[in-house]
Structure prediction request, 594 residues.
Amino acid sequence: MHNKEPLAMADRVKFKDLSPEEKQDYRDRLRHSTAHVLAEAVTKLFPDAQLTIGPPIEDGFYYDFAVPEAFTPDDLNKIEKEMRNSIKANTEFSERETSRDEALELVRDNQYKVEILEGIPADERVTFCSHSDGAFEDLCRGGHMARTGDIKAYKLLSTAGAYWRGDENNAMLQRIYGTAWESRDAQKDYLKRLEEAEKRDHRKLGRQLGLFFFDPIAPASPFFLPKGAQVMNGLIEYVKELYGKYGYQEVMTPQIFNTDLWKKSGHLDAYAENMYFVEVDEREFGVKPMNCPAGAMIYAADSHSYRDLPMRLADFGRLHRNERSGVTHGLTRVRSFVQDDAHIFCTLDQIGDEINSFLQMLNEAYETLGFESYRLELSLRPEKRVGSEEMWDSAEAALTEILDASGVEYEAESGEGAFYGPKIDIFVPDAIGRDWQLGTVQLDFSLPERFDLEYAAEDGSRQRPVVIHRAMYGSLERFLGVLIEHLSGAFPLWLAPVQAVVVPIADRHIDYCHNVGDELESAGIRVVVDDSNDRMNAKIRQAQLQKVPYMLVAGDQEIEAGTLAVRTRTGENIDPMTVAEVSTKFLRQIAERS
RNA sequence: GCCAACGUAGCUCAGUGGUAGAGCAGCUGUUUCGUAAACAGCAGGUCGGCAGUUCAAUCCUGCCCGUUGGCUCCA
Prediction:
């Protein structure tokens, strides 16, 4: 949207009649315009503030200011009020082109704008945009509404520190986030959506559902309660089932290793800042942040021939990574976690099949778990890396080829790869739309080299295998966090920590309920009999809040008929069933993972 | 790591320069109930930690720990 004329919404054209592209353009302009009005208000209230950038973003906008002191929540109110004046005045947005010299003269007191100006390609126009009858002007490439009065709904949401150009070596600016919409209703809907998402926050639900908790004694490291552990194990069991189908073998490896191993693997050079070290008997050990070196040792423990390959070794080992303090977040970014990790040792020729088969398994798992849409990203060589340029060239080429041939859409990101190889990452959004990397498949030409891994080829020569690191869930902790948000904590029957609660209506029904409970339990169903001294209504409510899939109610009528009244957590009442019928129904549903 | 906010009972939160309260949960008792909260009583807190200011600090100040929001969707 370079150097576009200001947009006036013709009176007869309704927002809802615009095409998706036009809607996006309209909202971008609206939000960028609001950012300008924000900048004007800040300039008025804080004359020392220097303007930097203020782009539209998804659902809103931000503007970064260089100010001596951070904004307070109260400042936001004042700024919002000031913005109102400008919008009420309903002045025109206008743009004018200047020469570079003139522009430089106008922004010379603002190093940030000078930098921006210097970054504008020589063949591009330099423009300034203004409103409030010229009282406010900002170096800007354009893309506005026609008038300030076109801003119908806006709200400042939060402040945050943000580095200039996102680089922590640069000065920290103060960012104000806001949102703006084509109508008050649209904004209301958005704020409502945010509220709803908050209810699905996995940290909140984790508490409420008794799944896990955190304690400062082990920062960013979850404690899983019995129910949470049950769900984690459910996820692991499912992977193990898939492993049976896709030809994996499981191994188990140590937790801490002499630092010599990390020297050999390259982690000491490339990853030490994220590792934990312990010294025992004057020898230094590193706690594993990844399983791969141990996997390489397992491979190297025996001699192999091409007939053994591909060898797929799964390792559910616990990993520890010392993440920077500011980046940890609930279950989605922790310091101690488990992955559904596996290393595939194969020949160059087998890479394509292995990755394709992995992506197929991943798709099967994600469909089962209800992640119907996920995003693929191809990450290419980072600055800090091991291995030769030739190795990187061929590894990147291999992944690109596979993705192109598969026909699925993906984005390529340079500089995002692991230090030992390029990778394909799988991303899924959480409740408020933040993307989290879950699955991953990474090529590694370096590990086999470093551990001198070999296999005997058909012609008797010794060859180096390739290693593919891969995980579907990635971190099980993170996966669970995102899964909780997707499901609002309502796990499918097969994963639910408690699959059914048996509810007696009065004390005289308790014995019958216990018998029912015992029978279902021995059939392998996770069932709880609520024999507490509460009224039935309270028990139903309790089970409902705990998102238990089924409530089995028994009173005089049921005992008489030898049945159970079945209620689902969606509030539906199914026809009464015998215990045997309930058991059959549940077991089938569990087996199908439906 | 950096910027900002926050940290009070198991949980969610109120509150004050004179050593603290509610609801829920818990325990005890009463009640025996038909699909989202019966009633009563009891118990529960070094107010995140350490210093400092003060006659007196949960409240003010500093440091530390932890949590939360954010830290390139580029004029």
In short: The first strand of chain A starts at residue 50 and ends at 51. Chain A has three domains: 9-190, 208-487, 500-592. The CA atoms of residues 440 and 484 of chain A lie 20 Å apart.
